[in-house]
Amino acid sequence: MSFPTAAVLFLIFLAPLCLRAADTLSVGAGRSYARLGDALAASRDGDFIRVAAGTYPEKGLTVRKRVTIQGEGWPVFDAQGGETILDLRADGVTVRGLVFRGVGVNYLRECGAIWVTEAADALIEGNRFEHDFFGVYGAHVRRVTVKGNVFEGLWGKETANGNGLHFWKSDSITIIDNAIRGHRDGIYLEFTGNSTVIGNTCEKNVRYGLHFMYANGNTYLRNTFRTNGSGVAVMYSRNVDMRGNRFERNWGAASYGLLLKSITGSRIEDNVFERNTVAVFQEASSRIGLSGNLFKDNGWGLRIVSDCDANTYTGNRFTGNTFDLAYNASPENTNTFTGNSWDHYQGWDLDKDGIGDIPHRPVELFPAIMQDHPQAMVLLRSHFVTLLNVLERMFPTLSPPTLEDRRPLMPVARAARKAP
User: Fold this and answer.
1) Most buried of the four, 81, 226, 279, 408, by CB within 10 Å?
2) Is this structure's pTM higher than 0.90?
3) Which residues are registered as beta bridge partners of 70?
4) Predicted confidence band of residue 333 (pLDDT cuts 50, 70, 90)
5) Does the structure show a pLDDT above 50 at 344?
6) Rounded to whole angstroms, how far apart are CA atoms 198 and 202?
7) How is 85-109 classified by DSSP, letter by letter?
């Protein structure tokens, strides 16, 4: 038989068997399968599993085939205080429209409503996670997308609560438009790089709204981190891109809008820091560009410590903060401030070009005293403190002489007052 003839026979008789249409498997009372586990066992790659409304006591299910699991009318998978409900171990699995509830605390294993293990291209979209230890946990995964879900944790203490989203040793993760609250950390990325986190709201989490370590090359856009126990902490990473985010109302003795620890080669741009104990706390960080940010009504705008060097601060606006800047890093300052707007600026603008005619020294004496003697806060509004700050501007003693903004923008309200 010639090759062309064999090829034609294959296309006519065998190809339809190999290229079968995907099946739809129905799960629910009175349906083809009573339980999701039965449908998974009968499924093949490419199948669609439709789950009817109802409550299903489920846990310990492993997905080893490329299937789509779709809920109708918000079916509930209830672990009843037990372990992980779904463990995705196949590439290309989609989970959509389901409620995952009741994954209990386990001090030996990070039990999550959904685990993704050594798989790629999973899509977890439009689900609800209610009172689970961990929401979604990924380990050694690639190109996983978590989109449009609602996560609510256990609202317990830090030691008895897991994270909403947790990825470990993973790459190219997309986390978009999720709402996360009541967990230990809203989003935690560890050894997870080249990922994007966009449009999420993380609020009222016990510790951090966002927490990552050794997570290089990640981008964080238009997220809101609000009223979290300790704010947001990012550590030991490089090439971090954070733009257009909001850090709001993270109050407490150890709370930060954004904590930057050992971050290098990154940019923090066009963010809003409003009503935080400390808007941005920097430690051992270098080559970071902070530009176009709004620091409004915070306790501290910036606190810079422990050998932060070669950072640039440009086009930021400081308004209504109790203290704009505290600095106790190296005496040889290599950080650059230029073109920022400071409402504590006492200079003038005679040529009306919007730029102050004399430099601004943002470090005041009283904040430096406060760092070592917090009980001095009782003197905050006294004339004595005002005198100390004036003397520090005239005769710098606790801040490097080079730490000044040589081209400060005039504060908006004062510039409007002085306009012709």
Assistant:
1) 279
2) no
3) 50, 96
4) confident
5) yes
6) 11
7) SEEE-STT-EEES-EEE-PPP-SSS
Tell me if 33 is assigned to some domain: yes
Structure tokens at 130: 């209610």
Note the helical H segments in 274-411: 365-372, 383-394
Helices 365-372/383-394 angle, 10° precision? 110
- Write the pLDDT tens digit of every residue in 53-74: 999 999 999 999 999 999 999 9
* Contact assessment for residue 330 and residue 353, using Cβ atoms and an 8 Å cutoff: no
Angstrom distance (rounded) from CA 161 to CA 83: 14
CA distances from 105 to 155, 184, 384 (A): 12, 12, 54
**Is 73 a member of any domain?**
yes
Write the single-letter amino acid at 127: N
Distance of CA 258 to the CA centre of its chain: 10
Residue pLDDT, tens place only, 141-190:
999 999 999 999 999 888 899 999 999 999 999 999 999 999 999 999 99
Distant-in-sequence, close-in-space partners of 253: CB < 8 Å, separation ≥ 6: 277
Asked if residue 329 belongs to a domain, the reply is: no
In sequence order, the 6+-apart residues with CB closer than 8 A to the CB of 297 are 274, 275, 319, 320, 321
Is 111 part of a structural domain of the chain? yes
Residue showing tokens 């704009």: 324
How is 28-67 classified by DSSP, letter by letter?
STTSSBSSHHHHHHH--TT-EEEE-SSEEE---EEE-S--
Query: Got the DSSP string for 281-313?
Result: EEES-EEEEEES-EEES-SEEEEEESS-BS-EE
pLDDT tens for 243-276 read 999 999 998 888 899 999 999 999 999 999 999 9
Mean pLDDT across the chain, nearest whole number? 88
Domain extent at residue 175? 21-187
DSSP bridge partners of 168: 139, 190
How many domains does the chain fold into? 1
Name the DSSP class of 10. I
Euclidean distance between CA atoms 345 and 407, whole angstroms: 11
**pLDDT score of 314 more than 90:** yes
Are 146 and 137 within 8 A, CB to CB?
A: no
